[in-house]
């Protein structure tokens, strides 16, 4: 099966595209887009945007989310990120920015489009890459989880990466990571239901940059490019 995805990732993931689970997943997505027209997010063409924005050999940090925002106009292929014109921001993203401000002692970021993070080597990966409008988790257990397991497993070829795992679904991916050669940062999810259970005060941005500098890599500029 020929999948349109960034070339370096295509090389790493090519074997997945011919597996029965992936072919079944693509058939499911085609049916969903027929039955729900413009109600599948992110829009067609942006499903693999996380890979386009952050090629395989540029990855320094991996942030793992759950599934895309199920609100029209929000999801654009990068986990936690939203289109530039979205206001107000989703509550989970707002909480991420609150922690960012507290952690780095910077003004709170207002731009919800995180493409500037991706361009610096942050892979913004959801565990499930598509969703039906208004129905969170509607595309879970359809094959995406197996595919994103393969994505994480492919990164074992690299070392000195930072994996930021927020919440239980992201933390399930920990088994695909080489713990000895990378940094793993775990905390509760930034959603309003769990952010006060340990997400706030976890300082993931400081921890990430300190580790990157220790292994000789440039730190991430987390603040808004505005």
Your description of this structure?
- There is one protein chain.
- This protein is of the alpha/beta class.
- The chain is 35% helix and 11% strand.
- The chain has helices at 7-17, 20-36, 49-53, 91-104, 115-119, 144-154, 168-171, 204-214, and strands spanning 40-41, 61-65, 122-126, 131-132, 162-166, 183-187.
Keywords:
two-stranded antiparallel sheet; 6 strands; single chain; alpha/beta; 8 helices; 4-stranded parallel beta sheet; 11% strand; 35% helix; 226 residues
Distance between the termini: 40 Å
Gross morphology is: globular
For the largest sheet, list the strands in their spatial order: 3-2-5-6
In DSSP terms (H or I, runs of 4 or more residues), the helix count works out at 8
- Helix and strand composition category: alpha/beta
Rg, rounded, reads 17 Å
Strand-residue fraction? 5-15%
- SSE pattern: HHEHEHHEEHEHEH
Question: pLDDT under 50 segments (min length 5)?
Answer: none
Largest sheet: 4 strands, parallel
Number of strands: 6
Report the helical percentage.
25-40%
Mean pLDDT: 95
């Amino acid at each position: 099966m020929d999948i349109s995805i960034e070339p370096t990732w295509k090389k790493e993931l090519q074997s997945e595209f011919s597996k029965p689970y992936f072919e079944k997943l693509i058939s499911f997505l085609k049916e969903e887009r027929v039955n729900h027209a413009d109600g599948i997010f992110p829009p067609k063409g942006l499903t693999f945007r996380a890979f386009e924005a952050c090629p395989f050999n540029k990855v320094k940090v991996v942030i793992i989310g759950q599934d895309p925002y199920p609100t029209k106009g929000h999801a654009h292929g990068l986990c936690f990120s939203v289109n530039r014109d979205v206001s107000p921001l989703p509550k989970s993203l707002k909480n991420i920015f609150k922690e960012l401000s507290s952690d780095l002692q910077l003004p709170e970021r207002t731009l919800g489009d995180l493409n500037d993070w991706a361009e610096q080597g942050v892979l913004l990966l959801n565990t499930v890459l598509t969703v039906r409008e208004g129905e969170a988790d509607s595309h879970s257990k359809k094959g995406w989880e197996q595919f994103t397991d393969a994505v994480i497993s492919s990164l074992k070829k690299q070392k000195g990466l930072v994996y930021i795992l927020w919440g239980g679904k992201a933390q399930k991916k920990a088994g695909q990571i080489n713990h000895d050669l990378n940094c793993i940062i775990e905390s509760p999810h930034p959603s309003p239901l769990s952010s006060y259970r340990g997400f706030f005060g976890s300082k993931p941005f400081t921890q990430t940059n300190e580790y990157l500098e220790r292994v000789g890599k440039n730190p991430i500029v987390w603040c808004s490019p505005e």
